Write a sequence for this structure.
């Protein structure tokens, strides 16, 4: 069994993907081909924002927003303690300071009370300048942007949605990657909408920010490629990746997102009485980048993972380490404690999850999880 079966997806879309790839090969428009501009329009329309600016990967997307907002040494940027490293890495890369806040146990996403305590601690200390909040749509579920927006407004902070795992999620009718002052996503192959390599995008309604991003992704270009008006870098989405994404976006919107939600419903139905299954708050919709259980202890979690492996079922620990314990952030001051993140890192386990899972596979995974827990609870 595959954790995320990309081959099943390729088989389902083979004809369209093959012809999209061959089209790029025969046109030889490898960089900035028309597929890139078309895709940006399609993505902006799907998400419901004015601008989509694609780039080399989801980390560059985050960094480009940091650059656009002039995040610099002396600035504090508030980042969840429970996330993929890149969410905080990009802050340090600009020389600014990531300040980690805790998450909610049931949603894995921003704990707004902890965030506010962190902001107040920074203000009280009076050393760093509070600049922006990063919120993450972990495992496919949007963070609570209604509450986050209020905090951002109250303290006059910019709000960035790291939607690397969140593409396709919703709060009410509003689609992920449209929240905050800017949002980013990743097209890494295993994300909800993945390409055949690295890729990423920024979404924003801000014309000035969008113009700036289109400039810095190509060496700070001005009116044309060899007119350089600022220091930028080179981070473009390859035409080949855009061509693959055009095919995949259609499948994603027409049935993949619906199917992956059906898989989640089936898992939860089978498992909810024996283990803590993921909780999607009312009014929210997840794109299920991961289906993540919470076990009773680290020992139980590790033993379940070993047991599943013996049955040929892959599972993953996202994430084994809180951000504030990463060696790379050694020396950073912790403004608030993050006990929930510490607990989650010891007790979470993500099961195989993707839109092409068969009922048989879902039943097999659930059967073995139940089998294990009936003996080890
Ligand atoms: C994957 C991921 C990123 C980085 O995306 P890349 O395309 O791999 O650079 C950033 N943030 C989160 C939350 C992610 O899951």
């Amino acid at each position: 069994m595959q954790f995320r079966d990309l081959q099943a997806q390729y088989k389902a879309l083979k004809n369209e993907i093959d012809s999209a790839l061959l089209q790029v090969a025969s046109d030889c428009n490898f960089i900035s081909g028309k597929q890139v501009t078309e895709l940006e329009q399609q993505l902006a329309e799907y998400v419901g924002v004015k601008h989509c600016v694609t780039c080399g990967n989801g980390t560059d997307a985050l960094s480009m927003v940091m650059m656009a907002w002039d995040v610099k040494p002396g600035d504090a940027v508030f980042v969840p303690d429970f996330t993929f490293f890149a969410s905080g890495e990009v802050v340090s890369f600009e020389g600014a300071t990531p300040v980690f806040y805790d998450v909610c146990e049931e949603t894995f996403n921003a704990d707004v009370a902890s965030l506010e305590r962190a902001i107040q601690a920074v203000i009280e200390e009076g050393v760093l300048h509070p600049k922006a909040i990063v919120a993450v749509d972990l495992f496919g579920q949007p963070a609570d942007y209604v509450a986050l927006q209020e905090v951002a407004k109250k303290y006059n902070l910019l709000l960035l949605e790291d939607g690397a795992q969140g593409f396709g999620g919703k709060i009410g009718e509003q689609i992920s990657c449209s929240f905050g002052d800017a949002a980013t996503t990743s097209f890494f192959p295993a994300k909800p909408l993945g390409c055949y390599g690295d890729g990423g995008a920024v979404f924003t309604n801000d014309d000035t920010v969008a113009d700036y991003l289109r400039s810095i992704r190509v060496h700070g270009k001005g009116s044309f490629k060899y007119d350089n008006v600022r220091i930028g870098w080179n981070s473009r989405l390859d035409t080949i990746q855009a061509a693959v994404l055009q095919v995949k976006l259609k499948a994603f919107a027409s049935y993949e997102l619906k199917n992956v939600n059906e898989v989640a419903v089936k898992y939860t139905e089978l498992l909810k009485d024996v283990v803590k299954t993921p909780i999607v708050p009312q009014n929210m919709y997840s794109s299920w980048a991961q289906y993540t259980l919470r076990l009773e202890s680290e020992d139980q979690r590790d033993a379940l993972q070993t047991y599943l492996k013996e049955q040929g079922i892959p599972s993953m620990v996202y994430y084994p380490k809180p951000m504030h314990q990463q060696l790379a952030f050694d020396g950073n001051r912790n403004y608030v404690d993050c006990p929930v993140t510490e607990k989650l890192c010891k007790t979470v386990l993500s099961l195989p999850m993707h839109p092409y899972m068969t009922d048989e596979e879902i039943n097999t995974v659930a059967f073995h999880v139940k089998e294990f827990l009936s003996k080890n609870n």
The chain has eleven helices and twelve strands. The longest helix spans residues 239-271. The mean pLDDT is 97. The pocket of pyridoxal-5'-phosphate is lined by residues 57-59, 83-84, 86-87, 136, 162, 164-165, 186, 188, 198, 200 (CB under 6 Å).
